[in-house]
Design goal:
34% helix; Pep_chain_release_fac_I_sf; 3 helices; peptidyl-tRNA hydrolase activity; translation release factor activity; elongated; Double Stranded RNA Binding Domain; two-stranded antiparallel ribbon
Length: 137
């Protein structure tokens, strides 16, 4: 069971884990051991609350397919157990991140002091560059 928050949990039957061969540079064990984990999570079939489902399906993340399935491939570690833990952790973080409400940004004008400092700095640069010129007699 994967715990998302205090009152939201995912049962084991909702998450499909399968072992696959990892991609990348070879070694002595290349093409022999399936240590990477392929995680599939069907949003529509899950027991998540409706608010979670709506936000997950509306997200523009590339891990969510058109059918509403989250696909995560974990292959950072050499053991299957560590990759499994990594995939579950990434799924949990993804679901949590979707539920965070972004603060609305309001455009503001710069303060008079900041405008004045900027213009003063520009004038100083102008004077410095003038002193670099050749002196004409």
């Amino acid at each position: 069971m994967l715990e998302i928050s205090n009152n939201v949990h995912l049962a084991d039957w909702e998450i499909e884990l399968s072992a696959i061969r990892a991609m990348g540079n070879g070694g002595q064990r290349v093409n022999k051991v399936a240590t990477a984990i392929h995680l599939r999570f069907d949003i529509k079939r899950s027991s998540l609350p409706a608010a979670y489902k709506e936000r997950l399906l509306a997200s523009k993340d590339s891990r969510v397919t058109k059918e509403g399935v989250v696909i995560i491939k974990a292959q950072n570690f050499r053991t299957q157990e560590m990759n499994k833990d990594d995939a579950l952790k990434r799924l949990k973080e993804f679901i949590k991140s979707v539920m965070v409400v972004q603060k609305i940004r309001r455009a503001t004008k710069p303060t008079k002091g900041s405008v004045q400092r900027r213009l003063t700095g520009k004038a100083n640069r102008k004077d410095i560059k003038k002193t670099r010129k050749k002196v004409q007699f």
